[in-house]
């Protein structure tokens, strides 16, 4: 059974299976954390060029997070040792920054989660490295559109299944595969909280959306089949058929009338092209 619990910033909040309904103090905390997260991604734009290593990008993320008064929530999370995830081409998610250099034509996802005053701003965007084939650009465009169509369904009275269905319908219309193995999640005081936000589903199913709910939507969409494979590092997930994968993520809060996107780019750089 779905249970909801109203919370305020002073409460002790843990991952206990309940869906938290945050008050204005929670929304204010998420607004600040989400803004910092978006600013970090904005600042990365000029650095995503052929030849740069993903660990150099991770260094920028860590420095900006700390300078912003926050801590990278991924640092030390279940043994993860980097400040962001960088997923290149057929990597679906949780790519680990390292000495690998980006090359012209790559598409990459950078996923950041600064924790500011205890609030988690979780967001990711795709970046195009130099000139990118039209096939890859189309995947990136449709993935962003799918996220935003899902967000349009995020309003009180709707169900999570309405969000999922909007995403799945748009992606599959383009004959893409929607990843099943990873989902969005409640977020706020807790990095990964209830509910699970799956990206395929039927209208009217799943938990009802209520004002105060805060969660991420983060569809991963593949040119080919939805199936993923874990690499031996225990983190990196890749497409089984090695086709390209794309993802965008926002952290949002349900309001009385719709939703607030906490992680929108203040610079208007929510999706490529950024030039
Ligand atoms: N930011 C990712 C998400 O969207 C989680 C990354 S956890 C890590 O939920 F340990 F892989 F970094
Ligand atoms: Co997330
Ligand atoms: Co994320």
Characterize the structure shown.
- With 275 residues, the chain is an alpha+beta fold.
- The protein has four helices and 19 strands.
- It has helices spanning 24-44, 54-67, 134-152, 160-173; strands at 4-7, 19-22, 71-72, 84-88, 91-93, 107-112, 114-116, 119-120, 123-128, 177-178, 184-186, 193-197, 214-217, 220-222, 228-230, 237-239, 245-247, 250-254, 259-261.
- Helix 1 (24-44) packs across helix 2 (54-67) and helix 3 packs antiparallel against helix 4.
- The longest helix is centred in the first third of the chain and has 21 residues, at 24-44.
- It is globular.
- The relative contact order is 0.19.
- The model has no long low-confidence stretch (mean pLDDT 98).
- Bound molecules: 2-amino-4-trifluoromethylsulfanyl-butyric acid and cobalt (II) ion (2 copies).
Task: Please give a handful of descriptors for the protein shown.
single chain; 275 residues; alpha+beta; 3-stranded antiparallel β-sheet; 19 strands; 25% helix; 25% strand; globular; binds 2-amino-4-trifluoromethylsulfanyl-butyric acid; binds cobalt (II) ion
Write the layout of secondary structure elements.
Elements: E1 4-7, E2 19-22, H1 24-44, H2 54-67, E3 71-72, E4 84-88, E5 91-93, E6 107-112, E7 114-116, E8 119-120, E9 123-128, H3 134-152, H4 160-173, E10 177-178, E11 184-186, E12 193-197, E13 214-217, E14 220-222, E15 228-230, E16 237-239, E17 245-247, E18 250-254, E19 259-261
Parallel strand pairs: 1-2
Antiparallel strand pairs: 3-7, 4-6, 5-16, 6-9, 7-8, 10-14, 11-12, 13-18, 14-17, 15-16, 18-19
